[in-house]
Amino acid sequence: MIPVLLHRFKIQAGVSGLLMGLLAVFMIASPATFLGPRIYISFASTIPFVTILALGLTFLVIAGELDLSFPAVMAMSGLTFADVFLKTQNPLLGWIAALVVGAFAGYLNGLLIVRIGVPSIIATIGTQFFWRGLSSLLADGLARSMAPVRETWLHHVFVGRIGGVLPAQALWCLGIALLLMLILNRHIFGDHVLFIGDDIRTARLMGINTDRVRILLFTFMGTVSAFVSVMVCMEMANWWPTQGEGYLLLVFAAIFIGGTSVFGGEGTIYGTLIGAVIIGIIEAGIISAGFSGFWTRLVHGFIIVASVSVYATLFKTGR
């Protein structure tokens, strides 16, 4: 029974084992930090941003597509939120405007890739430069201070502290993960995404509207990017021209550590969720253990390469 379950949930078991192993190492190396609650509350305020982005991108990777433009979409939609809020003092209006901009950016990616036929990696590199350049031009390279947003109800809803302790973004992250897990595993749309990633020609022969599904996925990723950008703006009470930079590699690392196949057709929301947690705790664990922060990238790289190698050799996830 146990071997059957391990085979069925091999990716989930592998990434869970990696997380528990890392936590055990960090607890031994730095018990004062990792045996107390404060570090985990800190994780709950920072890890959800990477996690939500990774959850959205997981659907695209499973469908065999990539989106490298989401950091720039975050910058553009975050600027939209900041400017609308500063002019109207209405955070809800700013949030809606940001989501519209993010959805449009994602829809534009979908049109370029699906209708015109540009490969997703090329199209999204281009739109990454476009949105980053446009946001810098519109902002004139200047940041936006948003201190009054801390006093709004939307701030408390998205990034407030529940009971004065638990960051609200952690609950948003878990709720979104649960919803996407149900869609991927229990809804016909999830089946379509998996079929498209496995073999898009067969998916078409089965009657799946592959163009519509792919455009929806890119639009969804743009909307998710805008949603996270608003949360980051409210958490920091600031928008800055380089917003979103630094998320790209962390998000892809979380997805691939979580066991999603780079070839498409296979992946889990649970794996991405745990992968993002692994990425999020590494830097704190390294510094708490007394090492320089320069070790962070090295350890990230080692864990990513080791994880995908294990999946490819033991679990036969490659082609």
TrEMBL record:
Bilayer topology? Multi-pass membrane protein
Q: Which InterPro entries match?
A: ABC_transp_permease (IPR001851)
- The keyword Cell wall biogenesis/degradation is assigned to this record: no
Q: Which UniProt keywords apply?
A: Cell membrane, Membrane, Transmembrane, Transmembrane helix
Question: Where are the bilayer-spanning segments?
Answer: 12-33, 39-61, 68-86, 92-114, 159-184, 215-240, 246-263, 270-291, 297-315
What broad class describes the main subcellular location of this protein? membrane
Report one GO cellular component: plasma membrane
Q: Name one GO molecular function term.
A: transmembrane transporter activity
Question: Looking at the record's lineage, which domain of life comes first?
Answer: Bacteria
Q: Name one Pfam family in it.
A: BPD_transp_2
Q: Is Transferase set as a keyword in this record? A: no
Where's it found, cell-wise? Cell membrane
Q: Which PANTHER family match?
A: ABC TRANSPORTER PERMEASE PROTEIN YPHD-RELATED-RELATED, RIBOSE IMPORT PERMEASE PROTEIN RBSC
Full protein name: Ribose ABC transporter permease
Question: Which organism does this record belong to?
Answer: Desulfosarcina ovata subsp. ovata
